[in-house]
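Example record

One chain of 224 residues, shown exactly as stored in the release files.
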Amino acid sequence: MTSAIIVAAGRGSRMGFDKLLASLGGAPVLLRTLRAFQACPDIDEIILVASEDREEVVRRLADDGELTKLKAIVPGGAERHLSVWAGLQAVGAAAEFVAVHDGARPLIHPLQISRCLERARETGAAASARPVGETLKRAEPSGRVYGEVDRRDLWIMETPQIFARPLLEAAYEVVRRDDVAVTDEVSAMGLIGRDVWLVENPTPNPKITWPPDLALAERLLPPD
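Predicted structure tokens for this chain:
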């Protein structure tokens, strides 16, 4: 059994409005994210971590979206890692693998979710990512360039990030014990010395953070 934790507790202050409820091709961003996991045959249950003041709206979206895999909506914490921990507490007892995904990545394809899960079953830990394709420079605060960054072996991290449940729980026990504000689960795995394998994503999977990201996502939406 595989459980998916969708992290959607952020306030989206950088957007100036609630990015998760913003319309993307006629449907809220968060609903598109949830539908991708609903459509993935390898996902058995969905745990949504959302801010308390967003719960009523989210439940209405869930009902309208026919999200039969949605098992629970739980309140999130002040930081992302606290929200993931809250989601872990709601995961079903039979879950052997847990996928963690940002609610603000609505273009994830169900096939990529399955690819990541397949790799996680082989290795215990896998994450969606894409290689860096642009030239990278180092610059001072003033903007003066003073060096280059070799982009070989560099990857841009995405979600989902999928793990054998005992590994993810062990990593987050350390996160909580040491009060480490990790920004993703791959970083949490580093705290317990576990390797993670990357799964290259062939389809766009941007995170909606700034207003231009929403416009870009509109252009990247696949045809219905």
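Notes: The chain has a mean pLDDT of 91.
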